[in-house]
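call fold(seq) -> C-alpha cells
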Amino acid sequence: YHGYKGLDTAGSLATFYFFLTEIALFYKLFGMNAYSSAMANFLLLALSFVGIYKIGSLLEGRKSGILSAIVYTIIPFNIIDTASLGVNISLGFVTIFTVLFMLMGYKDKNIFRSALYYGLSGLFLMLSVITMIEGIIISVVILPFLVYLLIKSGRRSLIYIAMPFIVGIAAGLGAIALFGVLSGGAPLSVFTIDMSWYGNQSIAPYSTPGIRLLESYLQTLFPYYEAPYQSFHSISTILPIFIHTIHDTAIYGYTSGFTFYLALVFGFYMMIKRDRAVILPALLVILPLIYLSFGTMSIHNYVGISFLPRFASIMFPGAALIIGMGMANIMFGKA
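ret:
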C-alpha cells in the first residue's frame, strides 16, 4: 500500500501501474539491481513469445506460430526496450494476450472454456489502461471482432460471449479503481490524470491529428526513408546517411528496423495467395495506425493523440504475425 501512496500526484507517467508493479515485484524478490529490472522485462518478452506463437498457431499452424514468435522477439525496438527497462514491452504483452484470449474464445468449442477466454480478453483490455492509457487503442480491433462474433453466433452469443467479456471489463475496472485508491486518489483517477496531461497546452502541437501525424508514424514504421532521396550521387554518399539514420533511431530505442518493410512484402504475398488468415494480423497494424493518426483520447470532445514513436509498439504483434505466416507459407505451404 505504502509503495503506491502519492502516485496520484506524480503525473501521468506514475499511472503505469502494471509496469511499476512488475518491477516492484522483481525488486522485492531479487533485490533492487539492474538484473532484476532486466529479468522483469525478459519475462514479459518470453510470455509475449508464447502468446504470439499461440496466435500464429491458431491462425495458420505451429510453424507459422514459431516463426512469428521469433520475428517478434528480434524486432530491434523490442530488444532495446527489454534491455533498457522500457514500458513498451508490457504494452505489447497486454496487446498480445487481449487478442489471444479473444481468438481462443472464438476457436474453442467448449462453451464454458470459451466464456472464460472472452472474460480474460475483457480483463486484459482494461489492464492495457494501467500499462499506459494509449493501450486502450487495441479496442479498435477487439470491439469490431466482438461485434462480428455476436452477429455470427446468434442469440446465445449474448450469454456466452458478451456477458463474459463485460465481466472481464468490470474486473479490469475494479483493478484500475484499486490502484487509484492505493495511490491516494479517486478510484478512476488514472483517467483524469491522463486526460489532464492531454489537456496541457504545451503538448497541443504534438496532438494535432491528421495526415501529418499519419506521416510521422509511417516514418517511424518505415525508417531509412530519407536516404535514397537525400543524395544518390554514389554509394559513398548514400551509405553514411543510412548509417546515421539507423544510429539516430536506434539510440533512442525507437527503431523497428526493416520489420514493416517485410510485413508489407509478406502481406501482399498473402493477399495474392488469398490467405484469409492474414486479415486479423493486418487489422492489428492498420486499425491502430489509423486511430493513432486520426482518433481521439476523449469521449466528450475531440482530443488528438500526441505523437510518440513508441506507441507504434501496439502494431508490432500484427507485423510479426504477417511476416511469420508469410515465411511459413513460402517455406512449408500452409503450416
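Residues 201-205, 226-233 have pLDDT under 50 and may be disordered.
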